[in-house]
């Protein structure tokens, strides 16, 4: 069974540029999470989807971040415009349901110059 | 707020036993997870505790005391490949709260 797929794995952009990350969860997993992880820290939740509905986006900086999961499967996370402080690893995870074990993708390492 | 504490770094010797502690103060509790994360890789699931007591899975065991807000991950017969960060996460009201992780260095 394929795991959570994310792309790109690495991205380097200049500040003020837009960037987008893509995630394909494990087949059949209804719950999808986007996390941000800074070096030496644990993941911090940005947004959680149950199917196509964003049920928790309280930690998403909505002035520059947006996310969508149109058909309840794949998801994209966008930053526009990117700032230097956005440099981090962006992790996508999925689970069968909200209380179930999460499985993480390999992450996208973003460097904003 | 939610507060999860773990030691920042630990060092142990190959073949030994190491215990990584996690204490938490959260407004609610629905379960506690342990994840392993190698440098530059995604976290991978190790264990899940929802009731008090010890859960054993091969070389890894996890313990939970809900009354004390305390958990530990026990790694036996340490191997070099166990060098990684170990993340404690509390599941509470449909959210996962992660600690900052404990970096374990296994030396020969």
Write a brief structural summary.
The complex is a heterodimer of chains A (about 110) and B (about 110). Chain A is mainly beta.
Describe the structure.
The complex is a heterodimer of chains A (113) and B (108). Chain A has no helices and eleven strands. In chain A, the strands form two sheets. In chain A, strands 2, 4, 5, 6, 9, 10 and 11 form a seven-stranded mixed beta sheet that branches. Chain A has a four-stranded antiparallel beta sheet with strand order 1-3-8-7, with no helix packed on it. In chain A, a hairpin with a 2-residue loop joins β5 and β6. Chain A is globular. Chain A starts with a strand and ends with a strand. The mean pLDDT of chain A is 93. Chain B is mainly β and 108 residues long. In chain B, the strands form two sheets. In chain B, strands 2, 4, 5, 9, 10 and 11 form a six-stranded mixed beta sheet that branches. In chain B, a hairpin with a 2-residue loop joins β6 and β7. The mean pLDDT of chain B is 94. At the A-B interface, β5 and β10 of A face β4, β5, β9 and β10 of B.
């Amino acid at each position: 069974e394929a795991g959570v797929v994310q792309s790109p794995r690495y991205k380097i952009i200049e500040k003020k540029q837009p960037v987008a990350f893509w995630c394909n969860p494990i087949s059949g997993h209804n719950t999808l999470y986007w996390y941000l992880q800074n070096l030496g820290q644990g993941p911090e939740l940005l947004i959680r989807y149950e199917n196509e509905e964003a049920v928790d986006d309280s930690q998403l900086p909505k002035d520059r971040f947006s996310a969508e999961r149109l058909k309840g499967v794949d998801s994209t996370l966008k930053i526009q415009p990117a700032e230097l402080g956005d440099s981090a690893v962006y992790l996508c995870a999925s689970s069968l349901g909200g209380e179930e074990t999460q499985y993480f993708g390999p992450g996208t390492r973003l460097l904003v110059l | 707020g939610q507060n999860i504490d773990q030691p920042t770094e630990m060092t142990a010797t190959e073949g030994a036993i190491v215990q990584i502690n996690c204490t938490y103060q959260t407004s609610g509790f629905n379960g506690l997870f342990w994840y392993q994360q190698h440098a530059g890789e995604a976290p991978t699931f190790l264990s899940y505790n929802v009731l008090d007591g010890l859960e054993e899975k091969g070389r890894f065991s996890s313990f939970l005391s809900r009354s004390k807000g305390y958990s530990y991950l026990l790694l036996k017969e340490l191997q070099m490949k166990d060098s990684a960060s170990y993340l404690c996460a509390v599941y509470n009201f449909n959210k996962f709260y992660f600690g900052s992780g404990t970096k374990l260095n296994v030396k020969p």
